[in-house]
DNA sequence: TTTGCCGGATTGTCGGACAATCTAACCGCC
DNA sequence: GGCGGTTAGATTGTCCGACAATCCGGCAAA
């Protein structure tokens, strides 16, 4: 009341509002982690210790810890003790994917991004793939050929194939940029496989050409077939009667 | 109390360990939002209401709500009431950036990804930029030219320029994929500008060519100058005595 | 209509509590 | 002495109740 009036008189000094305690706790721990004072793999200490350290109630500490847990900087092991950890990328990938769906991006936006990222990923895979990774790609193709009649299975193996390509690129930046959009493209691959009779055969052929290019370290061939592969998806999508300028469905969220 | 006992009575069905109550609350609300039963802009209701709805304690509800708040699906307004919201992408961008730094990706990975994404973004901007967006790019270039002697300022304006290009692409997927890595590249742009005398002039010239290509709707020119611009950064980085295969520093986290 | 004030509602934070579970020390047995 | 089982202690998940600060909506006064 009076205090309020008094505090509002010099508005220049009130920097927003001092953040709540649970956030201060989270931010303090986060700063320690980012600055390297707390390293991944080290224990964070018990809730009681944090209560003592920050001088706040355990409920408050817990609210703060939840934030860090959610952002992947802190993990609880089987015994629920707290450990500092490197954020796993899977969580980020699905957050980004979810954001894309909620913001109702169109399939065309998805296609443009997926094409660019696929080209770069294949190019990197051509340069950096190891023999073991090439073998894994081969095996994936063989399994796909054995299931050509089963669209769901082919779609799943296609997703796996692109995951393998991503790994073979040895570029984590590309992978993190690629996965959210690619997962969404792959979600609609099954639709294309069902509606376009020749799609499964074309898909597996493109995969074979990918691997061939990678084995021969032929960058241009890799780019060529990547382009064809993504373009095939686009054409199939349109031929299946879908509209590229339509926002992607929320359905695709449920796949993970 | 009784509820608790009731829920635990059928132990055979306990898959692994039934997730804790705070997470069940978070997931239930999240499902409602993703399924569209709760839409962005709608109030989520008070904590007391959620307590009644889920039959758990307020502390538990609060722990759960914090998770949603952190992932951006739920927001508190000035009065701290809860609202459903579309996740803002800024938070995702900085999460991804943080993950890249913590995972110690190298500048080379960054460069490869930034190049591919920059090409695609410029290409999209060439197709979709509006006159107003082109004007904004022009003004940015003018401001940059006026500050050519100030590396920090040029670096900042360069970041703004690329943000404008991203907006002109009208492709939110590309933007979300591009921003985390590009922000990291931009962080080291200042270093290059300081160490390479001709860098500022080359940078502004490339920007001018970008805009020229966009205005003429010339895709190839756009790609060409995007490639040169990113390549310039890479050469400058090496000329400044840096190693492309070195992980990026944690320093770059502090820029935001 | 505008301003000021008030009561109710809501949140941020606190203290304390208890069952379930995990850890680690202890103990008896081979 | 080493080993498996047991028990006491520590820790977490959840609950209950409480209070100050703040916000909102309405009512009275100007």
Descriptive account of the structure:
2 copies of one chain form a homodimer. In chain A, strand 1 (74-76) and strand 2 (82-84) form a beta hairpin. With 256 residues, the first copy, chain A, is an all-alpha fold. In chain A, 68% of the residues lie in helices and 2% in strands. The longest helix of chain A has 24 residues, at 172-195. A two-stranded antiparallel sheet of chain A has the order 1-2. Residues 1-16 of chain A have low confidence and may be disordered. At the A-B interface, helix 4, helix 5, helix 6 and helix 9 of A face helix 4, helix 5, helix 6 and helix 9 of B. Chain A binds a DNA duplex (30 and 30 nucleotides) through residues 1, 4, 20-22, 46-48, 56-60, 62-63, 76, 78-81.
Order of helices and strands of chain A: HHHHEEHHHHHHH
Report strand order across the widest sheet of chain A.
Answer: 1-2
CA distance, first residue to last residue of chain A:
50 Å
Query: In one word, what is the shape of chain A?
Result: elongated
> How would you classify the quaternary structure?
homodimer
What's the alpha carbon Rg of chain A, rounded to whole Å?
24 Å
Low-confidence stretches of chain A: 1-16
Number of helices of chain A: 11
Notable traits:
2 strands; homodimer; 256 residues; DNA-binding
């Amino acid at each position: 009341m009076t205090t309020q009036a008094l505090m509002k008189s010099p508005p220049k000094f009130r920097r927003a509002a001092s953040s709540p305690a649970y956030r201060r706790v989270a931010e303090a721990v986060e700063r320690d982690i980012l600055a390297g004072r707390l390293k991944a793999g080290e224990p964070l200490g018990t809730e009681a210790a944090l209560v003592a350290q920050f001088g706040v109630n355990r409920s408050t500490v817990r609210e703060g810890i939840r934030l860090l847990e959610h952002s992947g900087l802190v993990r609880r092991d089987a015994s629920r003790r707290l450990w500092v950890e490197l954020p796993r990328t899977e969580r980020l990938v699905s957050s980004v994917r979810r954001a894309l769906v909620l913001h109702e991006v169109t399939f065309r936006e998805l296609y443009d991004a997926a094409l660019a990222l696929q080209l770069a990923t294949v190019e990197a895979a051509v340069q950096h793939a190891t023999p073991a990774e090439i073998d894994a790609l081969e095996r994936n193709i063989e399994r796909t050929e054995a299931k050509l009649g089963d669209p769901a299975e082919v779609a799943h193996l296609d997703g796996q194939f692109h995951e393998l390509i991503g790994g073979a690129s040895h570029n984590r930046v590309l992978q993190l940029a690629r996965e959210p959009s690619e997962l969404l493209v792959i979600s609609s691959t099954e639709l294309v496989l069902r509606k376009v009779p020749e799609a499964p055969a074309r898909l597996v052929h493109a995969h074979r050409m990918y691997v061939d290019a990678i084995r021969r370290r032929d960058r241009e061939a890799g780019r060529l077939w990547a382009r064809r592969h993504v373009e095939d998806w686009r054409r199939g999508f349109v031929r299946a009667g879908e509209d590229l300028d339509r926002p992607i469905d929320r359905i695709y969220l449920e796949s993970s």
